[in-house]
Design a protein that fits this description.
alpha/beta, about 25% helix, eight-stranded mixed β-sheet
């Protein structure tokens, strides 16, 4: 597909840049398809010419035009596109497509991003209403270019709003439409935040949070030094044998529900992109949710939400050993994961350098760089920025006023044997705790059931008495989750029985509102950041949080709704020292 003449200035602007941000309010996908074609041709002819990332924000009233015209390779991500902000990671991550689905003026007022180019459509009516241009102007910085087809907008209207017309009406007989640049003669009241220049970064923590942050920065050109406590990464709670990624549901589609879907939209492309073995390291198997005490309710009865979660069928309930009419949901875009496998795969990025046996005792700012020091005062690594992503070890580097809570969790596990195979469902089940029934390993397969939530408990190793209490707790959860399975698996939860293994347990960190903390750390240089307190949702949210932090650093479009991003930001804790 060829670019129409009025769009020709766009590729010339971004083809030599590391990244470029486009806001398309044309109401259709034609510019996107033309740019994608041009991008693919340029990649084939000169792989170093296109920018590392093209950030394309497409505003649509609904997703139908995209669903009808998108390449087949995009279809796995074009499911469950509910109104709001959706992020699609395409072309191996080179194209970050952010969909704003809904009323254009409302979304333009609600979302926050400053872009390099704005593409308008042929229909000028929405922008001719008094003050209609204001929502668009808030996404401009000095130098933002506006491109519109012939006759779309009067040049005088843009000139009064601070634009200078930068292109003649015709070139070689072709009508080039409108090409304008935002360059008002007045002083702008608020300058956009500058995008960080990639350099050296230090990440404290080699778990899900640290590895996701490191990967997102490395993709943008940073050299990242990741410090871990042990010889190998995933030395803390991220060493969980296996866990679930699954959307949260609520009758009102609350912020946590929307966050969980945004987390999966970030996680699933990452799993497909990394060198991970599906079926061994992870699987999008689907997850059955069953909770007799409080049956889950959905915020939708039809539409794209059913691509995420729907009432479970009678057959699915019976496969789990439940009555055919049991109150249960089926989460299609969910599954299980070995967290340590994801951590290791992310840390294998060529721009990431893992430092094992590197216990940081102090972070020191020299005036130019951050230094991570060990107990003897020796420098372990230094960087232009530093990110605290050390899980339960994070509080020592964070303000004491932050209300953080330790949560020790223990899971019960056991080998998958022929004697109890009939008691294990063919897919994971969650609700009252969660069961991952079949995880391959070198000895065969094993199952994992848990987890406990032991508030303000940090003791490791775990005593025999605490392990016995955890086994009893997990068995009680299993009895609620899968009543028919609990009696068959009970020996594995009974200390002293040959089938009972020691629990696996670690300490997690949670915030006062049980949401992660992502953003700057106040009280010092503005180059210290936190990505921590993921609690029990590290698998689902860590990749999203890493992308959010990187997007904020680089002034990119956010991978989720701006209001949801605020609920993750460290700014919500206040600026007390």
């Amino acid at each position: 597909m060829h670019l129409p003449p009025w769009l020709c200035p766009l590729p010339h602007a971004w083809q030599q840049q590391r990244s470029w941000r486009v806001l398309d309010v044309s109401g259709n996908c034609q510019t996107l398809w033309a740019l994608l074609s041009l991008w693919q041709q340029a990649q084939h002819l000169a792989p170093t010419a296109p920018p590392r990332q093209l950030h394309y924000v497409l505003v649509l009233s609904d997703a139908q035009p995209l669903l009808e015209q998108a390449p087949v390779t995009w279809h796995t991500q074009l499911v469950g596109l509910l109104p709001g902000v959706q992020r699609l990671v395409l072309e191996g991550g080179a194209l970050q497509l952010t969909l704003w689905l809904g009323d254009a003026l409302t979304l333009l007022r609600q979302q926050s991003v400053v872009v390099d180019s704005i593409v308008l459509g042929a229909d000028s009516q929405p922008w001719l209403v008094p003050h209609a241009l204001k929502p668009l102007l808030r996404h401009c910085q000095r130098g933002t270019q506006w491109l519109a087809p012939p006759g779309a907008l009067p040049a005088e209207l843009l000139q009064r709003s601070g634009f200078r017309i930068a292109a003649p009406a015709t070139t070689d007989g072709a009508d080039c439409g409108l090409h304008a640049v935002f360059d008002p003669p007045w002083t702008l009241r608020k300058a956009p935040l500058p995008a960080a220049t990639p350099g050296q970064a230090v990440v404290l923590g080699a778990g899900l949070a640290g590895s996701a942050t490191a990967w997102s920065l490395a993709q943008r050109g940073w050299q990242v030094h990741v410090l871990g406590l042990d010889a190998v990464p995933a030395d803390g709670a991220s060493g969980l044998p296996a866990g679930l990624f699954c959307p949260h549901t609520s009758p009102d589609d609350c912020p946590l529900s929307r966050l969980s879907r945004a987390g999966l939209q970030a996680l699933l492309p990452r799993l497909a992109q990394l060198p991970l073995q599906r079926g061994h390291d992870w699987d999008a198997s689907g997850v059955l949710e069953h909770d007799c005490a409080q049956p889950s309710q959905l915020a939708w009865h039809d539409g794209p939400g059913l691509d995420w979660s729907r009432p479970a069928s009678a057959a699915q309930c019976q496969q789990a050993g439940l009555p055919a009419d049991a109150p249960a949901l089926w989460h299609q875009r969910a599954g299980w994961l070995r967290p340590a496998a994801l951590v290791s795969a992310q840390l294998r990025h060529p721009n990431i350098h893992f430092h094992g046996h590197s216990a940081c005792s102090q972070m020191r700012h020299t005036g130019q760089h951050w230094q991570a020091l060990d107990a003897a005062g020796q420098c372990l690594a230094e960087g232009d920025i530093a990110i605290v992503a050390a899980g339960s070890h994070s509080p020592q580097f964070l303000p004491a006023s932050w209300r953080l809570q330790y949560l020790r969790g223990q899971v019960t596990w056991g080998p998958h044997t022929p004697e109890h195979a009939h008691a294990l469902p063919p897919f994971p089940v969650n609700g009252s705790g969660n069961l991952v029934p079949q995880v391959p390993d070198a000895q065969g397969r094993f199952w994992v059931m848990g987890s406990t939530f032991e508030r303000d408990v940090t003791q490791l190793p775990i005593s025999a008495a605490d392990q016995a209490a955890a086994h009893a707790h997990n068995l009680d959860k299993l009895a609620q989750l899968l009543p028919a399975s609990a009696p068959v698996l009970a020996p594995a939860f009974t200390p002293g029985h040959a089938a009972c293994q020691p629990t696996w347990g670690r300490v997690r960190l949670a915030s006062h509102d049980r949401l992660p903390l992502v953003g700057p750390v106040p009280g010092g240089p503005d180059s210290l950041f936190a990505l921590t307190a993921l609690g029990a949702r590290g698998i689902t949210l860590s990749v999203l949080c890493g992308e959010l932090l990187a997007a904020r650093l680089h002034a990119e479009p956010l991978p989720l709704d701006a209001r949801l991003a605020q609920q993750l930001g460290t700014e919500r804790l206040g600026q007390k020292p």
